[in-house]
Structure formats: C-alpha cells, structure tokens
Design brief:
The complex is a heterodimer of chains A (527) and B (325).
Chain A lengths: L27 H8 L3 H18 L2 E4 L2 E4 L2 E8 L1 H25 L4 H4 L5 H6 L20 E8 L5 E7 L6 H14 L1 H6 L8 H11 L10 E4 L8 H11 L2 E3 L4 E4 L2 E6 L2 E4 L2 E4 L3 H4 L15 H6 L4 E3 L5 H4 L1 H4 L2 H9 L10 E3 L3 H9 L4 E5 L9 E2 L5 H13 L4 E5 L5 E6 L2 E10 L1 E4 L4 E3 L4 E5 L13 E8 L13 H5 L14 H7 L16
Parallel strand pairs in A: 3-22, 6-7, 6-11, 11-12
Antiparallel strand pairs in A: 1-2, 4-5, 4-19, 8-9, 9-10, 13-16, 14-15, 14-16, 17-18, 18-21, 19-20, 21-22
Helix pairs in contact in A: 3-14
Chain B lengths: L2 H33 L5 H11 L2 H4 L8 H8 L9 H14 L6 H24 L2 H21 L4 H27 L6 H9 L3 H8 L5 H10 L7 H15 L14 H14 L10 H24 L9 H9 L2
C-alpha cells in the first residue's frame, strides 16, 4: 500500500514526515496523493518534463555542454507560519546588510564603533575602493539578494550564506512551477500554493523604482557576459519576462558619463543596468583592464548618478564569509533587533586559539573560502580524504583570513525519486528578496536545491545537484465568487456563440459514424 | 474558383484559427485556476463558458467545473466550436477541396485529426495542457504551410480572410473573458495577454508592469501585433480587397458589395476611437465587434458562396416544378 514511499526513513530531519514516519499536518494531503502514484507514472511525467525543458532551452552550461537542470518532481512544502518567520528573517537580514554596505562605503561608523574590525573590511578581496562615495539612487545596493538557508537535525532553520552580488536561480523557480503545474495539475487543486510567476514583474518594479532621480520612464537593460555564461538561460529568461533588452558590453557605450546602447535608430540612453557580470569584468577602466565583456566608463557613469547599477559594485564585502560571522551583530547594531534567523556556528580562523581548536578537529568541520561561491573550494571534513584535509590545514595556516570553518549541518531531507522509490535527499533553500528602496519583497518559497546523490550534502548544480519546486502553502481562502452567482456575473458579458459553418455532405457523413480510429465515447473519467 | 471550394477554404481558415485560439483560452485560464489559489474555478469556468457562447447553446445552467467545460469546449468532436470539433470540421472541409490545397496542408490537418483521440484520452488522464500545446504546435505548422506552400491566388485569400475574421472574433472573446473576471489586481490581464500569446510582445512594447488600459490598447488597436483586433481586421480587409479589386466598385459611390463595406466599418469604429473612450462600454464594444465579424462572414457567404448551405430542395417544390404545365 505504501507504494513509492515504502520503507521511507531519513537519518536527518525530514520535511515530509516526522521521526516516526508520520506526515505533518501540512504534508498530509501530498503524502496521501503520493501513495496513489506509481513509479512508472512518476517516470513518465518526469520524461515529459525533461523533454519540455530541453525543448525550451532551460539548461545550464557546464564543462562546455548544455545540461537540463534536473528537477525532482516531488515538491518541498513550507507551512504558512514557518514561511512568515523565514520571510521576516530574510527581510531583516537584507535590511541590515544594506545598512552595512551604505556604512562601509560611506561614513564607516561601524568600524569606528568597533563592531566589525577595520582590518576585516580592508582585507576583504571584495572590498572595492571604487565603490566608495557612490550614492546609489534610493539608497539601494542590494536590488536582488539570495539568502541560503538550511535546516539541521534540530529542526531549526539557519542562514548558511548570503548572496548579494549576482544571485541566480529565479528562472528555475518560475519554470519549475510552470512545469509542475503542467505535469501534476491535480496536486495543485487540493492545496493552496502561493503563486510565484509575478515575481519577475516585482523585480522590474524595483529596478524601475531605483532609476536615477528625475527619470520618469527609465530604460532598463539586463547585461550578460554572453551566451557562453553558465547562467545565460536565466539572463535571457529574465530579459524576456521583463520585456527589456538583453545587452552585452559591446552593445553599450559611455559618453560624458552617460550610458547608451547602440540601436538601429541611433544611440539610446540607458538608465538602469541589471548586470549579471561580476565586478571584476564590469568596467575595464576600473577593474580588470583585459575584460572584453564589460563597458568602459560604466562605473563613472554610476558615480555621476546617471545610471543605476543593480546590484551595486562592491557588495561582495557584505557576503564575504568572514563578514557573515558578524551579521548577527550587524542586525543588533543597525536595527536594534535580535536576529530572527540564526547563523550556522562559524569560526574565524585568524584567532590563533580558534584556529588551533578547529584544525584539531578538522575532520568534523566544513572549511570554506571566504570569497567563493558555487561550492568551489569547500572541504567537508567527514567526507574528505586525508590528503585533502592536510592540504586544507596547510592552506589555512598560510592564509587564515581566506577561510572560515563551519559546523557541519546535516541538511534536512525531502523524498526524491531514486529509481522506483522515493528516498530521502538533502536540500537547502534559497529565498530571493528584492529591494526597491521602500520595501523588501520576498519571493514566496525560493529555490530548493537538492543533492540527488545518496548521502551527498552538496546541492550545487555543478556537482550533481538538482532542484525542487517549493510550495509555500497558504490558508487564505479562495476569494468568494464576488457577490453575484457565476450565472449572474456572466450575464453582463457578450455571449454570442461562434458562427456555425455550413453543414457539408462530408460532415453529415462524419456525424453518421466516421470516426478517427480509437475514438472515445465522451464522458470518461479524468479531467 | 468554384464557390464550393472557396467556401470550404474560408471555413478551414476559420476553424483552424478557432481551434488554436480556444486551446489558448482554455489552457491559460485553467492554468491560472491551478497556480493561483485566489482564482475561483466555478467563476472562471462560467466566464469562459459564457464568452464561448455556451450560455445560449450549451446546457443550462452554465457549467462551473473544468471537466464540464473541457468536455464541451475541448474534447467534443461534433461541436465545431470545440477544439476537437473545429479541427474535425477543418479536416472535413479540407477533404472536399484537396485539389485546392497543397499536399502538406491536407496532411497536416488530417494527421492532426487522426491523432486527436489519443491526445484527448491522455488529456483526460494527465490534464489538458499537453493537448492544448499539441493543438498550438499543429496550428503553427498549418499556418507555416499556408504561408509557404500555396500560391497567393483567390484560394489563399479565402483562407486568409477566414483566419482573420476568426482571429478578430476570438481576440474579442478573450478580452471579454478578462472583463468578466472581477477586478482584483491587474493579474488577470496577464492571463489575457498570455491567452493571445501577447505577453512578451506587450512587455517589449511597454517595458513595464501589466495594466488594464495599455492591455486594451495593445489587443484592440496595436498595428504591429498580429493578434490585435485591428491588425486582424486590416489583414482581412486586404484579402477582401484582393478578391474584389477597386476597379470593380461602383465608380461614383465607391460602393462594392457589402462585405468590404462592413469590415471597413468595424475597423474604423475601432481605429478612430478616442483613447479615452477605449475602456468605455467595453462589453458592448466587444459584442459589436463580434456581431460585426458575423455580419461580414455572412455577407461573404452571400456574395461568393451563394450561401449554398442555406439552399435545400424541398420535395413539394420539386414536384411542383416537375408538374408545371
């Protein structure tokens, strides 16, 4: 009877069932629906999904090939009260980090007050002197943030890292939902899931709202490194859904601190650049002079207040893994609030005692480079070989500032397809937040990444990770059907039947019996 | 060309477009019921059923579940206003005029039709989305063959005329569905745009969020978007003008047959509307577009097809003719 979930047990906290294998109140309905599903059915729907992703070009590039981002069809559910907590925590964190960035590139109060050591900021490889003194319109530097969350064995949700530069993944959230509603329409009708499709429009609103002062109808563009970038699909997706131009560096030109794009009808002024290029490659005049994908003069145009860069340059100092260890203090310092979402316990290795302690139990900790992303350079103690560990210890001793050590979190699990059964697989969650200067709005849910290999704790797509649709359940009732009954409402509409065509001889024949092979009687079950 | 063939081609144009647009309408609205908990099934179904004319011809009261609406408007092979029925009717008409169509067009329509039962039974099991996307793919293929495999002769003009009239009519219906949806936020306008495959084109044109006014402007009046009512009417008018060149018109009054005059009137009613008046009395305006299109269709029938469908021999009359002294 248990079908797909036969023998399902997780060694970690599971998002679907409790320690006794009993579903939570909010997962009960999905749990029941899964009992009725066969492995063949699931595989069939999965194949339909994969084909449609490939046809639509929903892929990422890695090692010179295009891959379909694996989507596991079993969604991850978040009950409403828990989501409200996460949402508030994410907003709080982004507010504090915005304040920190404004401070670091402005008055540096936080350094003078000794909350964060001066040396931490100036030794950060992502501290960007070029950003000092730039006052971005609306005071917004983090137009889009992705905050990575994990849930450990104790059931507590913690922040694993912040992404304030060019977080990616929104396109997968939208496309995953689109795909799941198409292959599993029935599941959605029994639940009330908060929609995600409008979030791209919300992002565009934020970008428009942060245009340089005095521009009433800003021209927004999305700047991409080009088709060879691993996230190119997402760039094209967002540009299409926002209706804005997808530009490369060579399409742009800066003159007198004003940015233009070259069009067939002459040069057109650009006001907001949502750029998906790292700082280093953005402007060869300011950063790497050998960058061929940037636009010379862009940073000065931003400094002159003629163009908005989203996200702002220099944000990397705030998502530095060492800065991360201070974020709870920053929240208290700037907002006078207690952090709603705690950090994962993380150790600063520049303190000799801490370092000695961490290196002594290196096989139980996770070591991360402070400025890395995408899972590169991370060493997971319990899973590392002796050589890897020795190498890491050597590197830490050489350059303690470049690494942090973190307690290993046994990520929570969600049932995921593995052959004919559903097995527990570890997941994280990346909610997205967009700031328009007045409000920070969070995409309901976010990207759930899943480590598809058994026992793996690495969810990055470049390392065998996939994704899941994330459902934030809502108890908001479906809106009552206005005051009028449907028939009354519809009575105000034009209701002409479509024009009938002539009844041809053949059509009569058809009515008398010709049917394509396998024709059905109407009224069969199903929808 | 033969009146009979012309009539068949005209209706192939209409039915193929009808199938495609109905597939969009159902797909997008039902998708919305699924993804957005705030959208009510009964209400949406009633609106869709009404704008597709089921209030007068369908069961009483109007259907309020997706399954009922799909049975009536998607899976019914006998109702030429349903997706399957329209495709069947297009194929039946094509069968009678195979010599006027390219082999590719016939094969496309025929294969689509033969494939329907399998697609419908899959739709009953897995939901209607794959069926709708199948129909849209096949409609695009049909349109591609029409564009590239037949001469631009009178036959083509009848196909184009039928398609344009149906498109104007269907876009008006899709807009009517939006008007019928109670205004919550501007989100239902996104649904309307998507139903017309116009969302991305709209975003590129306006580069900002979706709001009622510009959507109306775009779908009624845009001169560059091929599914706007104005664009469809203009294309239809051009096809009519080729069928009946101006040299044949009355040289003083400029009067041709009814059809060009009627379609011109529907178009100018829209074209010279003041922007402020656009949203005014919208249901009536949409209705008058639909009625206008029906009138054009009818007069095309009178002028070119001799309304063959309406002529039937009456036995007594025949006897009378035969018995006349």
């Amino acid at each position: 009877m248990e079908g797909l979930l036969a023998g399902y047990r997780s060694a970690a906290y599971d998002e679907m069932v409790d320690a006794d294998g009993v579903p939570y109140p909010h997962t009960k309905s999905l749990h029941e629906a899964l009992q009725l599903l066969s492995a063949a059915d699931l595989t069939e729907r999965g194949a339909v999904r994969a084909r449609s992703f490939l046809e639509q070009g929903i892929t990422f590039s890695s090692s010179g090939r295009e891959w379909v981002f694996p989507l596991d069809l079993i969604p991850r559910l978040i009950p409403e009260p828990e989501w409200e907590h996460i949402e508030a925590g994410v907003v709080q964190r982004v507010r504090a980090l915005e304040a920190f960035l404004a401070d670091v590139y402005g008055d540096r109060r936080v350094l003078a007050d000794g909350v964060v050591p001066h040396s931490l900021v100036v030794t950060s490889s992502n501290f960007t002197r070029e950003a000092a003194g730039i006052r971005p319109p609306g005071g917004v530097r983090v137009h889009l943030a992705g905050i990575d969350l994990v849930r450990g064995s104790d059931g507590m949700i913690r922040v694993l890292e912040d992404n304030l530069r060019v977080p990616s993944g929104i396109s997968y959230v939208v496309e995953n939902r689109e795909a799941l509603t198409r292959v599993f329409p029935g599941l959605f009708l029994e639940q009330q899931v908060q929609p995600v499709a409008n979030y791209v429009a919300t992002m565009l609103d934020s970008l428009r709202a942060t245009a340089p002062r005095g521009v009433s109808d800003p021209t927004v563009v999305l700047m991409t490194p080009g088709v060879h970038n691993s996230a190119y699909f997402e760039h094209a997706f967002l540009a299409r859904k926002m209706g804005i131009e997808l530009v490369e560096g060579r399409d742009l030109i800066c003159r007198d601190n004003v940015l233009y794009m070259r069009t067939t009808s002459g040069q057109r002024r650009v006001d907001v650049v949502y750029r998906r290029i790292d700082d280093d490659f953005l402007d060869p005049l300011q950063f790497r002079p050998d960058s061929m994908i940037g636009c010379p003069g862009l940073v000065n145009a931003a400094r002159a207040g003629n163009v908005t860069l989203a996200n702002a340059i220099g944000n990397g100092v705030a998502d530095d893994k060492l800065t991360y260890t201070y974020v709870p203090d920053l929240i208290r310092y700037y907002l006078g609030e207690e952090p709603l979402l705690p950090n994962v316990p993380t150790y600063r290795l520049d303190d000799p005692d801490v370092r000695a302690d961490c290196l002594g139990r290196a096989d139980r900790l996770v070591f991360k480079p402070v400025d890395g992303s995408g899972g590169h350079g991370i060493v997971i103690g319990p899973q590392a070989s002796d050589e890897e560990l020795a190498e890491m210890i050597r590197k830490v001793a050489e350059l303690p500032r470049a690494y942090v050590a973190q307690e290993l979190v046994l990520l929570s699990t969600v049932p995921s397809q593995d052959g004919d059964l559903l097995k527990p697989r570890h997941v994280d969650l990346r909610p997205f937040a967009t700031n328009d200067g007045d409000r920070i709005r969070v995409l309901p849910g976010g990207l759930t990444r899943v480590a598809l290999r058994e026992g793996s704790l690495v969810v990055n797509s470049s390392q065998g990770g996939g994704s899941k649709d994330t459902w934030v359940l809502t108890s908001r009732p479906r809106l009552p059907a206005v005051d009028a009954a449907p028939e009354v409402l519809a009575a105000t509409l034009p209701a002409q039947a479509p024009d009938p065509g002539p009844v041809t001889g053949q059509a009569q024949q058809q009515q008398q019996g010709f049917r394509p092979p396998g024709a059905l009687e109407s009224g069969r079950v199903g929808c | 060309m033969l009146s009979r063939a012309a009539e068949a081609l005209f209706w192939i144009g209409r039915y193929a477009e009808r199938a495609e647009d109905t597939a969009r309408l159902l797909d997008v609205h039902f998708h919305q019921i699924i993804v957005d908990p705030a959208v009510d099934e009964a209400e949406t179904c009633a609106v869709v059923a009404t704008v597709m004319g089921l209030r007068d011809t369908g069961p009483d009261p109007v259907p309020t579940t997706m399954r009922e609406v799909l049975d009536l408007l998607a899976y019914d092979l006998d109702n030429p206003s349903a997706i399957a029925g329209a495709l069947a009717a297009a194929r039946e008409n094509a069968r009678g005029v195979r010599e006027s169509l390219s082999g590719e067009i016939w094969e496309c329509l025929n294969t689509t039709y033969l494939e329907l039962p399998r697609r419908i039974s899959a739709a009953r099991q897995f939901g209607p989305a794959p069926l709708c996307s199948y129909v849209r793919h096949r409609a695009a293929m049909y349109a591609g063959y029409v564009a590239s495999t037949i001469s631009r002769d009178a036959g083509y003009d009848f196909l184009a005329l039928g398609r344009s009239l149906e498109r104007a009519d269907m876009t008006a219906r899709l807009l009517a569905a939006a008007v019928g949806t109670p205004a919550r936020e501007d989100e239902h306008w996104v649904t309307t745009l998507r139903a017309c495959s116009a969302h991305e084109a709209y975003l590129r044109r306006y580069q900002r969020g979706v709001a009622g006014r510009p959507v109306l402007e775009f779908l009624l009046l845009d001169r560059q978007f091929p599914r706007s009512v104005l664009h469809a009417l203009t294309v239809g008018e051009e096809a009519l003008a080729r069928l009946e060149p101006a040299e044949l018109w009355d040289s003083r009054s400029g009067r041709a047959s009814d059809a060009p005059r009627l379609i011109g009137r529907v178009r100018t009613d829209l074209e010279f509307l003041s922007p402020e008046a656009l949203a005014h009395g919208l249901p009536e305006r949409l209705q008058s577009i639909q009625r206008g299109v029906s009138d054009v269709s009818e007069s095309v029938g009178r002028r070119y097809f001799g309304s063959s469908a309406l002529v039937g021999w009456n036995r007594e009359e025949a006897d009378w003719i035969g018995a006349a002294p």
